[in-house]
Design goal:
With about 270 residues, the protein is of the alpha+beta class. It contains eight helices and eleven strands. A five-stranded mixed sheet has the order 5-7-8-10-9, with helices on one face. Strands 1-2 form a two-stranded parallel ribbon. Strands 3-4 form a two-stranded antiparallel sheet. The longest helix is centred in the N-terminal third of the chain and has 22 residues. The relative contact order is 0.12. Bound molecules: flavin-adenine dinucleotide (FAD). The site of flavin-adenine dinucleotide has 21 residues, from α1 and α2.
């Protein structure tokens, strides 16, 4: 099978979503380069406001009209048409389904649609006031998932658990899942470990997660912000009130210890699963 080499410069929402869409063809060998070592670092990460979806009682035509009106004569109708027709469905396919971004919801699970600025309908989705950060975390995680799928690790990974709540809120579940993925990615790529262990447990007060390896270890303080995803782990945990600690020294393996308080999770239904 001939491969097609693709180079994408930039890993903001534009570069990352392009990579995810192009990667559906396995012949494409995709390389992404970024300016900062941490792929999350981009304008996208700092976008605090919301993003356009297809709200209730909304249509592609209404969105097109709003964009053209807001442009006051300078909007390219062709570009506005593409954005109005393809943007909202792509938000659903790429950001929600592929990158696992969970936009704000009401208690009954329906999306919180906002109406802002020149929009005539409720069609703006948020993740609190850090929408861009949530999008970047989801996109980079989805890209790393793909990378992992194509790499067969020759390192045994053992997963153990004891008592954990039967149910957890979706944002906590996603957070724990992504933290494990990020930590395994780091261990497989950098640690030269012979074995990796993942343990999930809980006490009455908190959910605990430990990912440990017997690899080469590293200086955790010096590694912060150097592309190991530690900032995204910290941000993910902060969103659910959690914390983490890294126990590692050069030559002595690494353990990532995570705690999420159960007071904001579900402390009424603890049982072995
Ligand atoms: C504070 C703030 C708030 C915002 N609020 C909103 C909002 O509410 N709603 C909204 O829709 N938009 C908002 N935006 C705008 C939105 O964030 C941007 O339009 C969008 O993120 C641009 O995405 P991008 O992928 O094109 O670029 P970026 O996210 O900037 O990504 C650029 C990528 O290119 C890489 N790069 C740059 N130069 C080089 C180089 N020389 N070599 C290699 N790589 C390079 C960078 O490392 C990065 O990976 C906001 C922006 C900011 C800063």
């Amino acid at each position: 099978m001939d491969t097609i080499e693709v180079l994408i410069i930039g890993c903001g929402i534009a570069g990352a979503t392009t990579a995810l869409r192009l990667a559906r063809n396995p012949r494409r060998q995709i390389t992404i380069i970024t300016r900062a070592p941490d792929p999350h670092e981009s304008n996208t990460r700092y976008a605090q406001g919301g993003i356009i979806g297809r709200g209730p009682e909304d249509t592609s035509e209404l969105l097109f009209e709003d964009i053209v009106a807001a442009g006051a004569g300078v909007t390219s109708p062709e570009a506005a048409r593409i954005l109005a027709d393809e943007g909202p469905p792509l938000l659903n396919k790429v950001l929600e389904q592929t990158a696992g971004v969970v936009f704000d919801q009401h208690d009954d699970g329906t999306p919180v649609w906002g109406q802002e600025a020149a929009h005539s309908r409720r069609r703006i989705l948020h993740v609190g006031d850090a929408t861009g950060r949530a999008i970047m975390i989801g996109l980079v995680a989805a890209l790393r998932d793909l990378q992992r799928e194509l790499t067969q690790p020759d390192v045994p990974i053992t997963f153990t658990y004891d008592e954990v709540p039967k149910t957890l809120p979706p944002d906590v579940t996603l957070c724990v899942f992504r933290v494990v993925q990020e930590a395994l990615h780091n261990a497989l790529k950098y640690s030269h470990a012979r074995a990796i262990r993942v343990h999930l447990g809980s006490s009455a007060k908190e959910l605990t997660l430990t990912i440990s390896d017997d690899g080469v270890g590293f200086d955790a303080n010096a590694a912060m912000g150097k592309g190991l995803g530690l900032i995204s782990i910290a941000e993910r945990l902060e969103a659910v009130g959690g914390t983490f600690q890294i126990r590692s020294q050069p030559g002595a393996g690494t353990a990532l210890e995570v705690r999420v308080p159960l007071s904001i999770v579900n402390n009424t239904d603890i049982a072995a699963v």
